Amino acid sequence: MAGAPGDVAELPPRLAIMLFRNRVLLPGAVVRIRCTSPTNVRLVEQELWQKEDRGLIGVLPVRDLQHSAWESKIKSSCNGIPGKNSRVFPDGSRKNVCRGVAARALHLSRGMEKPSGRVTYTVVLEGWCRFSLKDMNARGSYNTARIGQLDMTKAEMEQAEKDPEVQLLGRQFKVVASELISALEQKQRTVGRTKILLETTSAHRLADIFVANFENNFEDRLAMLDAVDLKQRLVKATEIITRHLQTIKVAEKISQKVEGNLSKSQKEFLLRQQMKAIKEELGDNDEDEDDVVALEKKMQNVGMPANVWKHTQRELRRLRKMQPQQPGYGSSRAYLELLAELPWQISSEERELDLVAAKERLDSEHYGLGKVKKRIIEYLAVRKLKPDARGPVLCFVGPPGVGKTSLASSIAGALGRLFIRISLGGVKDEADIRGHRRTYIGSMPGRLIEGIKRVGVNNPVMLLDEIDKTGTDVRGDPASALLEVLDPEQNRTFNDHYLNVPFDLSKVVFVATANRIQPISPPLLDRMEVIELPGYTSEEKLCIAMRHLIPRVFDQHGITVQHLKIPEAMVELIIQRYTREAGVRNLERHLAALARAAAVKVAEREHSIHVAREVQAETTTTTVVEGGEVADGEIDMEVEAMGVHGRDLANAIAGVEPWHVDEAMVETVLGPPKFDGKEAAERVSTPGVAVGLVWTAVGGEVQFVEATAMTGKGDLHLTGQLGDVIKESAQIALTWVRARAAELKLATGAGRGLMDSRDIHIHFPAGAVPKDGPSAGVTLVTALVSLLGKRCVRADTAMTGEMTLRGLVLPVGGVKDKILAAHRFGIKRVILPERNFKDLQEVPANILANVEILLARRMEDVLHEAFEGGCPWRIQARM
Ligand SMILES: Nc1ncnc2c1ncn2[C@@H]1O[C@H](COP(=O)(O)OP(=O)(O)OP(=O)(O)O)[C@@H](O)[C@H]1O
């Protein structure tokens, strides 16, 4: 026996029969079965395992219901009754279709023997050819049957295949079969082996194999088994496979239709669900994803311009693709959060500008400053008439604490806009204004965008504080970035490097402040209108303190005039002895210190009142009986404790005298006076010291110049924080003095010796204030003449001015500030270059009434006024 299944030479007349419950083995099909029942185990053992040759057995399909019936039928009717080989159906009918398939074992394996002695076999069987059951013998340990071969032999088959009808049916079947293979191939199932069979195997054999492979229905398989006739078999197989093919096609169509009906968003939803599931599997936190959704929602509502929205969408997509642990996720998120938080469309409502109210507001918040307030009102009036007018940017220039910031905030109040202060002090990097590009690690938006984010509206009043303190270095020029900010043409599309999309700053009202004009770059200055605030006189400071600072400080510390009284005299004392500033910042600080001290006292008082009442409550819960007699049980009046907490505090101590600030208290709180008005007199009490007036970033300043002589070769040494110009001034001063030694009567005696053989050392001791102005020439000469003539300069005199080699005194700047500084310092006489006369108009009258101004054209005039009478070289002053 050889060849492929179906190519049957001859079957033996009797075969051992194995019953297949609800399964049909067809020729060409391969099954793997595990035999555990004693009958089958014995069958396998004897018919297959113990035979050297490959054994053949008969496989007979039976229905479940039939199974037991068969057992009995086989015993009663099938056995030994030829012609009764019929299949018994549940309805009791009998059909003459009792057929099976002879099968050969391709592989056999024997299971381990169990302790009970039982063994099992696993058999791989291949269907070989159909047979009919003639009779069954169940007398042995398993069934055997006499059989008759049904399938044709190879030679008969070849003959039959020549029939054109068989050939046609065969071709038809192969067409359907190959269609099925291609349909399955599309689904990427492994159908390779079946495909090969299609080309190499005859149609009738293929029919059995296809049905065995693709059809699970017991009845159909049974029908196939019954189809002994070739034509019938091909027709049956074509029908079964066609049906199978249709089912696949319909399923395909339905799934395509369903897919087509899914909208893009549904697909996205499905994909997201899948992603969520995957993330859950991976243990990734899904909160971030929810956050991103919230972020996107927020962004949809902030009214971004279309181009920004497009850009944002792109960034969002990028973020979604990232894992939260991935580097760059955090920065990408922070960036998107900034985009979501910026007020693209949010403006605070600008109320109708009431100029009268604005003026009242300015007056109520600031004392004096008449000119400044006038200019602000003009500025507001223009805005009222033409709201989108591209007026100049106001720039308040003045020393610290003169109210620049608070004026800007009053403008915001008058316009009904929000106020934001951007500090530009020390900004040297352009990125501080414009932000870093996002490629930098730790990049951030610039201060302007950051400020806009903080304030939350796109039309605030933005104060560019200390605009003069921006410097230029290798990291770029912040001033040029500011130019763009302040230019109405350009700030509509302000481009912050970090933001990377334009932001409209055109609705922002810019106000700037500076201590000095000089450091501001000319193009920037050109875009601004400078309003100077020079500093206050003592009288102005007193008024500011009484009207504005004290009420504000009290309010900030939760105390009232019922707790503390600061008399004017004490405020004056603080102004004179504890502060020497142009503004009122330190004054405010000192007043705050007094208020704090008072707050402590008030709190202590509160505590003592509280305890006293409680004691009273306990001891006075006694009975008071009219007539003065105490009678048990007769209660007329009960005395109750008073609550003195919280708001009752003011009432509780209402009866208590307010705390009056006196000199002793000022000293206790603020320490001993810092300035006593005698400093100048003390310092000029030795020859070689002169008092000059200089101008610095913090306004006018009093400056001592000390000159000494020591053994040397007649060199000049200069110390202090000095610039080149002042060094030159010192050289001119020495040259001038040496040239006039005789005239000044310095060239004789000790003076002469000092002049020629000794080094001169000039020192500017006042702190670390850099001094570069040219205006120290006059003071330097005076100090040298004092040193060499061994005469002291008048104690109450200060001077300012530059000079030429020929002794002409040149005009200088900042005269008003310098005179204010001298006044603060307690100096009574100021020597000025004659040509600065016009500057005196700016000096408040009350100052001029207190400080004597002496004007000089030549250096000799200055010297005449600087030294106290009796000067040996007294020169006629030309005033
Ligand atoms: N004329 C004034 N009337 C009332 N208060 C004033 C006046 N000038 C200054 N102040 C008060 O003095 C304090 C300091 O003023 P502000 O902070 O505006 O000074 P500034 O000139 O901006 O100083 P800086 O240049 O240091 O920022 C504030 O409390 C301010 O209200």
Strand order of the largest sheet: 1-3-6-7-8
How far from one another are the termini? 149 Å
β-strand percent reads 15-25%
Number of structurally distinct domains: 6
Tally the helices: 31
Question: Main beta sheet, described?
Answer: 5 strands, mixed, barrel
Give the tally of β-strands.
Answer: 26
CATH top level label of the largest domain: Alpha Beta
> What CATH architecture of the largest domain do you see?
2-Layer Sandwich
Rg over C-alpha atoms, rounded to the nearest angstrom: 56 Å
CATH topology name of the largest domain, in short, is Ribosomal Protein S5, domain 2
Helix content: 40-55%
Describe the structure.
The protein is α/β, with parallel strands linked by helices. It folds into 6 domains: 14-151, LON domain-like (Archaeosine Trna-guanine Transglycosylase, Chain: A, domain 4, Roll); 159-246; 265-341, no CATH class; 355-532, Rossmann fold (3-Layer(aba) Sandwich); 556-625 and 639-670, no CATH class; 679-866, 2-Layer Sandwich (Ribosomal Protein S5, domain 2). The chain has 31 helices and 26 strands. The strands form 8 sheets. It has a 5-stranded mixed barrel. Strands 10-11-14-9-15 form a 5-stranded parallel beta sheet, with helices on both faces. The longest helix is centred in the C-terminal third of the chain and has 35 residues, at 585-619. The N and C termini lie far apart (149 Å). Adenosine-5'-triphosphate (ATP) binds at residues 366-369, 398, 400-406, 465, 513, 544, 548, 583-585, 588.
